[in-house]
Design a protein that fits this description.
Blueprint (H helix, E strand, L loop, with lengths): L13 H6 L14 E7 L5 E7 L1 H5 L3 E5 L11 H4 L18 E2 L5 E7 L2 H8 L3 E6 L14 E2 L16 H7 L2 E9 L11 E8 L2 E6 L4 H12 L6 E4 L15 H13 L3 E4 L2 H4 L8 E9 L5 E12 L13 H4 L5 E9 L13 H19 L3 H7 L4 E2 L5 E2 L5 H12 L11 E3 L2 E13 L5 E8 L4 E4 L9 H13 L6 E4 L16 H24 L15 E4 L2 E4 L6 E3 H8 L3 E8 L10 E13 L5 E11 L6 H20 L5 E2 L4 E2 L17 E6 L23 H13 L10 H5 L1
Parallel strand pairs: 1-12, 10-11, 14-15, 21-22, 28-31
Antiparallel strand pairs: 1-5, 2-4, 2-6, 3-5, 7-15, 8-13, 9-10, 9-12, 13-14, 16-17, 18-19, 19-27, 20-21, 20-26, 23-24, 24-25, 27-28, 29-30
């Protein structure tokens, strides 16, 4: 049987999605459903003086209006609101808890009605009086009040310094220093956040929620409402995009459950697109980078300082400044990171958190250094190449094929034909620019549990509470299980997205593919061991005396590895043992001995064409060469990298959340005015998977792909824009007005 791993298998859930059989959180209907609509605050900071729901309650079909004054009981301590991935420091947001306003759009009332349109209309009739307080939502205005994080305190803290960066920078032959800015960006998944809380009677609920972690949400709901785990089942079989916004439970699930408990009936709440902007986001980031090099083109000094925003009530941050320690050899380095508290919701993880923004700045600075040194940008990176993770104390990588990414990417792009002089390449009336950048991400993996049920008819059900956020988890799970169990792909069924299934972490950080696939290996080995034990009990067994290492599962049989003629079909083994099913549930953990660093890498090459008179920028070509260990599915993997590259175009040229700082309110909270790339913005994207075998990171050699595709793309485009125009724009997005200034 031909292996499924590493082949372009089409999505096993594809037909369900295109026919509408796949149901999302807002699509589960039950009799007697009530509908909810959120009323958001119109101020950014202060307190509620009075809420008048009189007019709303007069509307026919309105059932009730819940506020902090009349809601059912909720937990009164921070611990109850702490989910699995909440920041360590701070007090998590409590929806509809009290009269305090902490950000514009904060939910302050919930209208419940017999119909969704009635609920939304009645919500517009709620009148609120506030005691308004002065607010700050501008990262530049509050920058001086930012406080420094301690070095090395947590995994997300700035790495420890090496040598004396300031002294080395002052003595460097060639120096570059620059400040780079990335604005707030919002996730904008296609599917709106929604929860359908189905009242099962007796205080029990089944909650269909849009989330990247059903068990995280279940524990969260149990904590807030003091419910027993058996009384709450959370399900999310399909998700229309999350990108990190669903790692933490969002307030729609709290409000839906709150309403269902108040009414003792089923309730659905779907947020509006505008309300989606009151959830998490990529934090704004100001970075200052100094690079000092010698005449030979190697680095003597690096300093990377960052200021990122967080809310007033939680300290959210990621490791922003230490990425150079993974990529470029440098004896002297210093990293600092400050947090600035603003009157905004807490930020969150957004595709490749920290790497997308930090490597935009670092790779732009490296390009500027290459120009100062009169070196080719690829050559500079090769001269500074590090085979060790300097942040971890000079440990080697389990695998790192970044040099080959540079080589294959440059060759496919035609980099050797580049004229290094800015404004030297043209196509008619357009200036042509070529730029490149490096990408890096962590190869993470988390403890996970997988259950496999094998039946005598040669069918296997694989179950785990993990999620498929649109990336193809159903498919890769089926591929791995088919290969490990020696069964046809059609004989594998996948169950996921249900809190009652075996334990799984939230799906994010590119860790689920590696985690759940190796979890399937662990449980499949237990199935194989059980089958071998039964086979050895058969009279005149062809596998008598064989050990577990001597046999494999293939073509529906238990087969000797040395001699395939020594084989017994799974059906015969189970028939003889008089068992119709074998079920195993095993946990898988991943040891990190600290002797190796685990990362994925990429080299991104971009071509832009810029209208010389108007400044309109088109990204006409992207080549992304990726080294990410073993590729499970070349079709879905290609889509992942291509999608990341398209998002990188958005980061570079389009995306920016605009706030009216007078009111602390987002002005472009819709997908008409919050610009993202559309078909007309996307041209030729070539994806190359560089072969990279890794026998150390995990048994299957998987590293994950969800994040690496976006990293480095914005920098490659920014560097190409400079090459085309001779103008360096250091504040994203790069828009035509910035080219004209």
């Amino acid at each position: 049987m031909t292996p499924y791993i590493g082949t372009p298998v089409s999505r096993v859930d594809g037909i369900a999605k295109v026919t509408g059989a796949a149901k999302y959180a807002a699509e589960f209907n039950v009799p007697g459903m009530a509908y909810a609509s959120v009323v958001g605050s119109t101020i950014a900071k202060g307190r509620i003086k009075r809420i008048d729901a009189t007019e709303a309650l007069r509307v026919e079909g309105v059932i009730d209006v819940l506020t902090h004054e009349n809601r059912p009981r909720m937990a009164d301590n921070d611990k109850a609101y702490k989910d699995d991935v909440a920041p360590d420091n701070g007090s998590p947001f409590r929806p509809l808890y009290d009269d305090k306003i902490m950000f514009s759009g904060q939910p302050i009332a919930l209208v419940l009605a017999e119909d969704s349109e009635i609920a939304r209309f009645a919500a517009s009739l709620i009148r609120v009086e506030y005691d308004e307080e002065a607010h700050v939502t501008d990262v530049h205005r509050g920058r001086d009040k930012a406080f420094a994080l301690k070095t090395g305190e947590t995994p997300f803290s700035p790495p420890k310094a090496r040598g004396s960066a300031e002294t080395a920078f002052a003595a460097a032959k060639v120096r570059h220093q620059g400040e780079y800015y990335v604005p707030i960006e919002h996730h904008n998944p296609m599917e709106l956040y929604a929860s359908t809380a189905v009242w099962d009677g007796g205080g029990k609920l089944t909650v269909y929620d849009k989330t990247q972690g059903v068990q995280n949400v279940q524990r969260y709901v149990c904590g807030i409402f003091n419910m027993k785990p058996d009384d709450v089942r959370v399900m999310s079989a399909f998700m229309g995009g999350g990108f990190g916004s669903g790692l933490r439970p969002q307030y729609e699930v709290v409000l839906a459950v709150l309403a269902a408990r108040a009414l003792e009936r089923s309730v659905r709440l779907v947020l509006t697109r505008q309300q989606m902007y009151t959830l998490s986001y990529r934090p704004a980031m100001i970075q200052r980078i100094e690079l000092g090099a010698n005449a030979g083109g190697t680095l003597d000094a690096i300093t990377h300082d960052a200021v990122t925003v967080t809310s007033q009530y939680e300290d959210f941050y990621r490791q922003e400044t230490g990425w150079s320690g993974l990529l470029y050899k440098c004896p002297n380095a210093r990293y600092t990171h400050k947090l600035e508290r603003l009157d905004l919701p807490t930020p969150g993880d957004m595709r490749a958190p920290s790497a997308t923004t930090a490597l935009y700045a670092l790779e732009s600075a490296m390009d500027e250094l290459a120009i100062a040194l009169k070196l080719d940008p690829v050559e500079l990176r090769l001269r500074c190449y590090s085979d060790l993770d300097q942040n971890a104390g000079d440990v080697p990588y389990s695998s790192k094929n970044l040099r080959e990414c540079y080589r294959q990417g440059a060759e496919a792009f035609g980099w050797d034909k580049r004229n290094p002089e800015p404004r030297s390449m043209r196509d008619g009336s357009e200036l042509v620019g070529w730029g490149m950048a490096t990408g890096a991400w962590e190869a993470l993996q988390m403890p996970i549990t997988v259950r496999i049920t094998l039946t005598a008819n040669g069918h296997a059900e694989v179950a785990c509470a993990t999620s498929d956020i649109g990336t193809g988890t159903y498919t890769i799970m089926a591929q791995v299980a088919a290969d490990m169990l020696g069964l046809p792909l059609d004989n594998i069924s996948i169950k996921l997205g249900d809190s009652t299934l075996p334990q799984s972490p939230v799906e994010g950080g590119s860790w689920i593919a590696a985690s759940v696939s190796n979890g399937i290996v662990t449980t499949s080995n237990a199935i194989r061991e059980k089958l071998l034990g039964l086979a050895n009990k058969m009279p005149n067994s062809a596998l008598a005396g064989a050990s577990l290492d001597d046999v494999a599962l293939a073509d529906g049989k238990l087969v000797g590895k040395q001699d395939a003629s020594h084989a017994i079909s799974i059906a015969d083994v189970m028939r003889h043992a008089a068992v119709d099913r074998i079920e195993e549930e095993k946990a898988t953990t991943f040891a990190n001995d600290g002797k190796h660093a685990h990362n994925t890498h990429s080299a991104v090459f971009a071509e832009v064409k810029v209208d010389e008179q108007l400044g309109v920028i088109r990204v006409t070509r992207i080549v992304s060469a990726v080294a990410a260990g073993r590729i499970l599915n070349t079709k879905t993997a290609h889509s992942q990298i291509m999608g990341g590259a398209i998002w990188g175009i958005g980061v570079a040229l389009h995306e920016e959340t605009l706030i009216d700082h007078k009111f602390g309110r987002i002005m472009n909270a819709n997908i008409a005015e919050y610009h993202v790339p559309v078909n007309a913005d996307v041209h030729d994207i070539k994806v190359i998977f560089v072969d990279e075998q890794d026998t150390i990171v995990n048994p299957l050699g998987i590293k994950g792909l969800g994040e690496i595709g976006i990293v480095g793309v914005a920098a490659a485009i920014a560097n190409a824009v400079y090459h085309a125009t001779g103008k360096r724009v250091r504040d994203l997005p790069i828009t035509l007005d910035k080219l004209q200034r």
